[in-house]
Amino acid sequence: MSSVRPWRDIARRKSRQIMVGSVPVGGDAPITVQTMTNTLTSDPVATINQIRRCEEAGADIIRVSCPDVESTTALPKIVKAARVPIVADIHFHYKRALEAADAGAACLRINPGNIGSSERVAEVVRAAKANGCAIRIGVNAGSLEKDLLEKYGEPCPEALVESALDHIKLLQDHDFHEYKVAVKASDVFLAVGAYMGLAEAVDCPLHLGITEAGGLIGGTVKSAIGIGNLLWAGIGDTIRVSLSAEPEEEVRVGYEILKSLGLRTRGVRVVSCPSCARQGFDVIRTVQKLEDALSHIKTPMSLSVLGCVVNGPGEARETDIGVTGGGNGKHMVYLRGVTDHHVSDDGMIDHIVKLVEEKAAEIEAGTVASMDSLHGKAA
Hints:
This protein is α/β, with parallel strands linked by helices.
């Protein structure tokens, strides 16, 4: 059956599926959004509080760093409190991986080559198998093996792919196949090239990310370009947007990337204009207030906020609820794409929030469907 909107179709790369705790990754499972805590894992109260904020933002999987015994000692309490699977971030100390697996981590993030001897890798694999842990192989352009840097002269896509394949072989030699792989770089071109090469070489799930991407604005742009390019090409099964910002911001940006490509839906998709002298109300401040006031809505739906009638009616036709600026402080409200009533400046925010909440309740109850044009109109 042909698609109604073929220009929006994304053919996802076929990958085998693994389980990270109760969350499927790869295959035809939804692309998951991850983040990482920045609290001391040895402080379970602070870490759990941050995990809770990330869960509320929509995180599917959350990673915590386990650099010492104090961290893995606190891990059972953290795992028990979390509502989503917890990934233990391990680098050089293989015993931390053993402790994390026993503590209930759903996945171990390691570089098998950094763990040590084949015997130590075998121990980690045995612990992972015994506890039902997946493993995420993490290759990073900033920490490539010395022999690969000498071979290629610098970090390049081929070097990252070769490193990943070497690490994969270490796990496969021990008959372990519940793994996903990341080949991250802070350079967008390098990361995209590496992922594209790896996607052709393996069938395992791929964890996407542009590492050390930067602050909230710069990092969001870099991540949207890099991760977005790969997702558009059908590559990627789980993502983490690495920002020098609070982890819940990483989750929000990750969802926005997925929403813009129609790959995941969560919450209100806002269509709004940049504003100009034609605006009938303060669009920028209105959108800011609405986004804050609607952050609790998890139901996928759409809202258009346009300052004037140039593009307002056209955008409103494609969204569940719309508001277009008019003269004398009177603005037109659209419901399901049809003009419905006017609203004045005074109380407009509260009025729109009430309409969105009511519409979300109707969608959740199944009495109406969202007519978000990005994800297909309601019948």
